[in-house]
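Justification of computing resources. Each target in the renewal requires a structure prediction run like the one illustrated here; the chain below, 300 residues long, is used simply to show the kind of job we budget for.
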Amino acid sequence: MVRPRSKGSRNSQNRFMKPRLILIFSLVTAPLFSQESPRAATPDTGVFRQALYSASGSFTDLNNWNAGGENNASFSLLIRENKKRVGPNWTTVRLLEANYGISRQASAVTKNADKIEWTSTVTGSPKKNRWNVSGQANVRSQFSPGYAAGDTTRVPISTFGAPIYGQFSLGVGHNSWKHWQVFVSPVSAKTTTVLDAELRNKAAFGLDTGSTWRLEAGSKITLNYSEKITENMSITAKSDIFVSYFARLNTVDVALDVIALYKVKKYLSLNAHIQLLRDFDQVDAWQRRSVLGIGLAYTI
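Resulting structure tokens:
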């Protein structure tokens, strides 16, 4: 549901900004001044790529089936491209994620997944310290219009370009670990842009009525994990946490995305995909999406 932005509490929340800024900055910069081993392990220079392309679906057709039920079908596509370029002074990680799925039941077609996201992180390559100055940019939106559950009026509550979430951050990063990539930022800006005029007039996604975009200042933590557990099983995960300096601590934005892939044959895999999202500008509740399926998958 679209939730209007409250204006009355904006000034009252400003007084919490200064002590919160000092506390969070102290926490996230502590690793810079902690004791390190004389030399961190430095990965070989070059370009390292990990990719996943997956297509899965299901189909049920019933005819005079006494036990009941309805015909249904679903189909989803998943793309995840992660490219890491390690140089003598800087390490660049670019991550593209796209996911789209539809389902059909009782002659009604609905979306069950819709996301496109791009993240680029630049970090000083490990030399004497494991933690190095780092910057990150992230942009996220969706492909097609979305509608409220059970709504038959076909009035969109979101669409391509409404919203567009952007985050631009400066902090420290750690790329020395084999399976983990960590980014911590005490200086982060989050933007919310709504290009659809009707949604702007409804004060959608925390914007003021009629406004096109909104800016928030805060801190951010990003954790990326990727590991091949066995010859046939791999797990990738990404989590983002954003804390606004102008909002209550219990309104922290959280996003978690976990993909587990088990290869049955060369291109046939069993996959599990779990997404958790908490954003009070969208809905005052945890959002969850869980998918277990079998289909075609190609990994690099």
